[in-house]
Amino acid sequence: MLNAKKITAMTLSGILALGALSGCGEKKQTAGGDNEAVEMTMHMHFFGYCVFDDEWPVFQEAAKRTGVSIKGTAVETVSDSAQAFSTMLADKKLPDIIHYQTSELNEIGPDGALIPLDDLIEEHAPNIKKFFEDAPEVKAAATAGDGHIYSIPGTLAPVGSKGLPSQGFFIRQDWLDKLGLETPKTVDEFYNVLKAFREQDPNGNGKQDEIPYFDREGLANNLYQLFDAHAGQFIKDGKIVDGRITEEYKNAIREVAKWYKEGLVDPEIFTRGQQSREQLLSTNLGGSTHDWFSSTASYNDKYPEVGLEFITMLPPADVNGVVKEDIGRSLLHGLAWGISKDNADPVRTIKYFDWWLSEEGIALKSNGIEGVHYNMVDGQLVFTDEVMNADGGAPGYMRNQGCVEIGSITTLDCELAGMNQIGKDGFNSYNEAGIITEPMPILSYSQEELDVKNQFETNVNTYAKEQEQKWIMGAEDVDATWDAYVAQLKTMGIDDLTAAAQSAYDRYLESTK
Ligand code: CA
Question: What is the model's pTM?
């Protein structure tokens, strides 16, 4: 990839030169009627590893259809997306398009790094207009604290979807069978199953080496939800509550610390990270987890020599007897793109954004290229073998083809088509059970609320996380230290953070009425 600074310096002259030459080039029809081939620069670096690649076929295909080709400016050598974002902002000249978290774009927009899109949308972007009309929560997320729109967010599901499944519990059916156990239906039964996995050598090597529950995301809400707890802000009866200072959380910590002490939870749960599934399933050590249906189901085919039967189960009923799943899919994926102050052709850019919300753009973003990534068979979307047999599953493969989180809509067809039967069964069982609780919306903070957030959030999160780990790993006792912990968080401003979120949430409710 080219040097970032060099590209930004080239942008303006590059666009002019291409514009002047367009008469000789191939004419390309676009939605807006513009047909000159142009090149625009874009910053895209998110999740710490997803960096725009000029070779992505999906974006090259979009360039064929719109005339707009994109040059990435972020470099892969930086692995911290937040750092890549702030380095980019410090450059004298910004890339034409800036892609990142909606919440961050809502901060830099009013500061002048992005231009307001309200009038551009009104005049040039019928698909975006319709998107915002059909999904008021999308418009609310795109509206910054100053009331203007600076970015176009995108969704993980069709507009109108609420509470769709994304993740669920997986358990080793082969281990249950071997030990003569039933699928656990309550949190107590789940504990007993994990205990049996730990003590009764289901992998049959004569050692107590099983790791009954592992999780590449750490513990967080995945396990705490079985105790009706939340490790962060959530909505209760229309009010924002920070779950980390509630009795439910305290009880969850006490119980999970016990599970940890008894070896039921991965001793490296806080550090093993993204490779947890590879490490613990390929070695026949892992018994249960909570993760994405599609990618997790794919491990069954990945290690045939292990003979995994890693299947989904509904969440065990929580401590109150309620079967629910808190980790659902927000409609929005939380990322967006906007037009920088240094963009020489905002009209062309908003039309490019608008194209990604056309039927054609949505299909390309969701499914990739027909004949390359998928074929239609009897009216059904079927991914090619190359996609289906890719290491780590179809979603990861398609991401590397350019099906990434941009300001567009994702269809459900592509998600289901990318799953094997185990993944599909899991997705459908959670969906049919109607157990997904409504996730927190993406809130847009005003400048005043942002100041509160910036002042307190990092310290509060860091301290709460450190304390969580001390308790779970047994370095401190939750009952003995709870009051001091709550007092410390209050001193650090946790109530101010909740109040700031509440006022942003009130405004969100108002704007989606
Ligand atoms: Ca064993």
Answer: 0.75
